[in-house]
Design a protein that fits this description.
Blueprint (H helix, E strand, L loop, with lengths): L1 H10 L35 E3 L4 E5 L4 E5 L12 E8 L2 E10 L13 E8 L8 E8 L4 E9 L2 E8 L4 E9 L2 E7 L7 E7 L6 E10 L7 E4 L3 E3 L11
Antiparallel strand pairs: 1-4, 2-3, 3-14, 4-13, 5-10, 5-14, 5-15, 6-7, 6-13, 7-8, 8-9, 10-11, 11-12
């Protein structure tokens, strides 16, 4: 609750719930895209890539994605993405809880079960995106970053104490900063920074989820997706 209140105060009066304005296709204020998931269903302003592989619920002021079939973000393979179209510079923040679907108090098991925030080129014939996710990477419970160019993925993970993390994805022109912190912490940690001059001005941005398991046991909940405008790299790590 404290994290939610802090995010709402950070966003200020420009924050909107799932009933508010939903696009900034003209490059206007991205805060109109924010959603605190206070409704009973996913707002129609969101679009779901590969809905056949995920069960989506909105309850208790959280969005929960539970994989129901194979879905894997790596190289040319695609997982699930719940997105809005975002034009220009922005930052998006979410408090993420990665869990086993069969035991929702436990973090995911190996091999790879992750979810977080993604920015993806909607128009490319190959996969081009960046993201930051939490859950279980090939080695441990971790926060992982991934940079995929022309369907070739490079990733890096760092061990994390739990399946809970506050994540942020920030774009300033061609530079993407991916940041992490434990929920309730006051200081952002830069997990990775990528220069992607190839990515277009408008991207698909929002929560993602994926697993390498043929029968996934993964659900990821998001307390919010808070968008805000930025104009300098320094603003990526300020609230």
């Amino acid at each position: 609750m404290r994290d939610r209140l802090a995010l709402l105060l950070f966003c200020g009066c420009a924050c909107w719930s799932s009933t508010g304005p939903t696009t900034n296709h003209d490059g206007g204020d991205p805060s109109v895209l924010s959603d605190t998931f206070d409704g009973a269903a996913l707002d129609s302003s969101w679009t779901v890539l590969h809905p056949e592989a995920v069960a989506i619920t909105v309850a208790g002021s959280a969005l929960t994605l539970r994989l129901t079939g194979p879905a894997f973000w790596f190289n040319a393979s695609q997982g699930v993405l719940v997105y809005k179209s975002v034009t220009g510079n922005f930052k998006v923040t979410a408090t993420v809880h990665a869990r086993k679907a069969s035991a929702p108090t436990m973090p995911p098991d190996p091999p790879v079960n992750l979810g977080g925030l993604m920015a993806r080129n909607p128009a490319s014939s190959s996969e081009n995106y960046v993201f930051i996710v939490a859950g279980h990477d090939p080695n441990s419970v971790a926060v992982e970053t991934k940079n995929t160019t022309d369907s070739s993925s490079q990733y890096s993970g760092v061990p994390w104490p739990s399946g809970d993390a506050q994540l942020r994805l920030c774009r300033v022109d061609a530079t993407f900063q991916l940041l992490q912190r434990t929920p309730g912490a006051s200081t952002w940690i830069l997990a990775a920074s990528f220069t992607r001059a190839d990515l277009p001005g408008t991207l698909q941005v929002g929560p993602n989820i994926y697993s390498s398991a043929p029968v996934p046991d993964l659900q990821v909940s998001f307390d919010e997706a808070i968008f805000a405008g930025v104009s300098t790299a320094a603003e990526c790590s300020t609230d």
